[in-house]
Amino acid sequence: MSDNFFAYISRMRYIGRWSLMRNALPENIQEHSHMAAVIAHALGVIRRDVYHIPCDPNECAAVALYHDCSEILTGDLPTPIKYHSPEIMGAYKQVEELACQKLLATLPEEIRGAYEPLLTGETQERLHDLVKAADKLSAYIKCIEERKTGNDEFLSAEKQTRAILEASPLPEVQYFLEHFIPAFELTLDELGTIEE
After folding, report:
1. What percent of the chain has pLDDT over 90?
2. Could you give the residue ranges of the DSSP H alpha helices within 105-181?
3. Paired strand residues for 16
4. pLDDT at 120
5. Within its chain, how far is the Cα of 109 from the centroid?
6. Which of 47, 84, 154, 161 has a CA 20 to 30 Å removed from the CA of 56?
């Protein structure tokens, strides 16, 4: 049935993340997708303006905004299960692709082509490295925020995610870690207020 796409997208707020862990600050995939899009845009800007590699930050942000939309139909499969084996990873990827195709089919045909590259195909593949890095940075920030609330449940995830990010071959990730991650350790008073 067409014309249901945006009603489905609005339901992203009902899909919780980190379901196997106690969350002091619950997060849904809509919130996560927004942060991933903000970070993907930043990584695109860093790639273009710092490392002088052609990149469209707006395209990065758009792909990241929709990167988890298949979970509207599939739910958020916990990471330990999703990456348990190559067979499960492959099967889940097929389910995600099917879910994206089902979502695309809910758009009117005349505008479907504008959304297809964001959910499937060449654009998504071309920007996969930056979007995946933004996804991982968003997860790392979540771990920091949970730790700051006194929730030790995320300590192992924080350590593992930091190691993955530090091992990333992308210079954009290293730049983001160096320049922007330290501020997430600060309180609002330490960040300072915007003065007139």
Report:
1. 65
2. 109-119, 121-126, 128-148, 155-166, 171-179
3. 28
4. 85
5. 27
6. 161
